Amino acid sequence: MAVGCVDFLPTGGRIFTSIPDLFFIPEFVFGGLVWMLVASAELVVFPNPLGWVMFVSVFCFVVTTLWFFIFLCGANQSGIWPSLDVGYHFVAVVFYLSASVILAYVTLLRATIQSLQGTSDGLKIYRLDIAAVVMSYVATLLYFIHAIFSAIRWKRS
C-alpha cells in the first residue's frame, strides 16, 4: 500500500461483506432491544441505576447509526478513521459491560422484591428484565468482537 493512500476501510455496500463492519446490523438489533426492554419496565426506584443503562443503549444506538451512515457514504477515508473506529468500539464495550452488570444487579434486586409480592405483573416485568440482561450481554459481545476486528484492521493499516 502506498504511503498516504487510504483505501482499507470499506465504503458503500462493501460494509455488508467485510468484518468487522458486518456487526453493525446485529449491534443495532441487540442495542435497540436493550433500549426497548429496559424502557418497557414499569418499576422505577430512586436512585435509578437504569438511567445509565438507558443512556448507554441510546448513546450507542445513535452513534452506531451515525457510524454506519458515515461508512455507508464513504466519508471514512481519511487516515484517522481506523483509530476512531477502534476507540469508539472499545468505549462502547466498556459502557455496555458496565450497563450489563448494573442491569443484571437491578434484575436480581427486582426478583427478590417481586418474589415477596407474587403478582403476575411482577413476573412479566421480571421476564422483560431477564431478556434485557441477555440482550445487553449479547450487545456487549458484539461490540467487543467488532472492536477486536477493528483493532486488527487498524494494526494492518
UniProtKB/TrEMBL annotation:
Segments forming domain MARVEL: 15-155
Coiled-coil intervals: none
Gene Ontology terms: cellular component: membrane
Subcellular localization: Membrane
GO function term, MF aspect, one: structural constituent of myelin sheath
Keyword check for Membrane: yes
Protein name per Swiss-Prot or TrEMBL: Myelin and lymphocyte protein
Entry's Gene Ontology BP terms: myelination
Entry-linked InterPro entries: MAL, Marvel, MARVEL-CKLF_proteins
